[in-house]
Amino acid sequence: MKEEAIDILEPGAHITGDQLERIDSQADLREACQDIMAMQSLLADHARFDAEAALKRFNEKHKEAKLHTLLHEKKAWVVSLLAAAAAILAFVFLPQYFRSSFNTDDTSDAPFFLAETSATGVTVQIGMNERIALPTQRHEKSADAIVTPDDLLALCSQSDGVESQTIAIPYGESLKLYLPDGTCVYMHPHARLNYPNHFVGDTREVQLIGEAYFCVSHDDTQPFIVHTPQGDIRDYGTEFNIRAGYDQTDVVLIEGSAGVTPQGGDEQMLVPGQQISIFDAQFSIQDADTDPFTAWRDGYFYYDQESLRDILMQLGRSYNLNIEVHRRSLLDLHLRYIIPRNSTPEYAVRKLNELMKESVTLNGNTIVVGGN
Questions:
Q1: Residue 53 vs residues 60, 161, 242: alpha-carbon distances, Å
Q2: What single DSSP character describes residue 99?
C-alpha cells in the first residue's frame, strides 16, 4: 500500500480518479501520501533540506520492511523531487484536496489572463499629438500588421524637423515595422516603441517597452541603440530579441554581435546564442535556444517543452482572449507546441487540447483549461 503511495506521487505521474478514490477511502494510504508531500515542502528549501533525515523520519513512521527497502531503492527519486516540488506544493497543506474533485482544486471562475475590452488596433502618437489608429496592411503568413515609413509620412508634418513617434501594439495585434533607416522590428502584442521620424546625429536611438525582435540595418558611422528601463543594447551588426519590462530586461542575440550595458554598469558583449538577463542592476549571461525567436519572426508560435503557463500567456496576448485555469497545477506542465501565428483561435485551442490530458475549450472570448 505504501509502495502505491510512492508510485502515485512519482514525478510526472498523472493521478487518476480511481487513485484519488483509493486515497480517500484508505486512511493509511492517504497518510503516506501526505507525508511524502510534506517531505516535498522541505525540498523547496534547498539549504535546510536533509534527505537522509527525511528518509529516516518517513521510515520510522511507516515501518513495513518492504517499504523500507523500496525507499532506499528510490533515494535518488526522492532527491529528484526538487524538480517536481513546485508543481505539487500547492497541495501540500490542503488535506481536503484528497476529498474533492481533482478538477476543482481552484476557484470556479479561475481567472488567469484578462483580455483588453476596448480594441484600438495599432496606434501611433506623433510628437505630443493625440494617439490615432494606424492604417496597416497584413502579412499573409504571420497576420502581422505591416507599417513602412511611407505609411507614416502622411501623418507627419511636412517639415524637415525631427518628431518623436510612438507605436503602441494592443493585445490581439502584432506588427512588422520598418524604421526610417531600413531596420525591421517585429513587435509583439502589448509592446511600445518610441523613435524619431528621422535619425540624425551620431547615433540612432529608440526606446522599447515590451517584446520585439530587431533586424538592424547596420551602420558603423551611426550605431543603433535600444534603451530599456534596465539597460541599453548597442548593435554591432545584429539580429536580437528584447523582452523589456520595468523590472527585468532579457536580450537574446541571434546573429552578429551586440553590447548590453546594464544601468550603472559596464558593457557586456554577447555572441550568437547567448542571453543576458538584467534585474535590479544585476545581470547574468547564459546560453539560449534561439529557435523560438526566429520562429516568431518567421510566423510561428514555437514552444519546445515550455510551460503551459507561458503558452497560455502568449495565446491570451496574441488573440486578446480571457483565460480561465481551473487547476493551477496544470500551469507547470511542459509541452511541445508549434503552430502558425496566423492560426485561428479555434485551431490554436484544438491543437493545445490534443496535447493535454485535461480539457481545453474555447467559450466565446475565453479559453477554459480543466473546467470539467
A1: 11, 73, 45
A2: G
Instruction: Indicate the pLDDT class of residue 246, thresholds 50, 70 and 90.
Output: very high
The span from the CA of 20 to the CA of 104, in Å, is 13
Cα distances from 179 to residues 20, 215, 323, 337, 353, in angstroms, run 58, 10, 34, 32, 39
Closest CA to 286 of 271, 266, 307, 308: 271
Which of 38-52, 81-95, 233-247, 346-360 is least confident? 81-95
Q: 249 by DSSP, 3-state: which?
A: strand
Residues 235 and 216: their CA atoms lie apart, in Å, by: 7
Three-state secondary structure call for residue 197: coil
Q: How many CB atoms lie within 10 A of CB 265?
A: 13
CA atoms within 13 A on the CB side of 227: 7
Ramachandran assignment for 38, one of left (phi > 0), alpha (psi -120 to 50 degrees), beta (any other): alpha
Torsion over CA: 180, 185, 186, 192 (sign):
negative
- Contact at 8 Å (CB) between 217 and 233? no
The answer to whether the CB of 230 falls within 8 A of the CB of 255 is no
Rounded CA-CA distance 50/353 in Å is 40
Rounded to whole angstroms, the Cα distance separating 254 from 274 reads 8
pLDDT in tens, 259-287: 999 999 999 999 999 999 999 889 999 99
Contact between residue 204 and residue 222 where contact means Cβ atoms under 8 Å apart: yes
Report CA torsion sign: 331, 333, 334, 337. Answer: negative
CA 271/CA 238 separation, integer angstroms: 10
Is this model's pTM higher than 0.85 or not? no
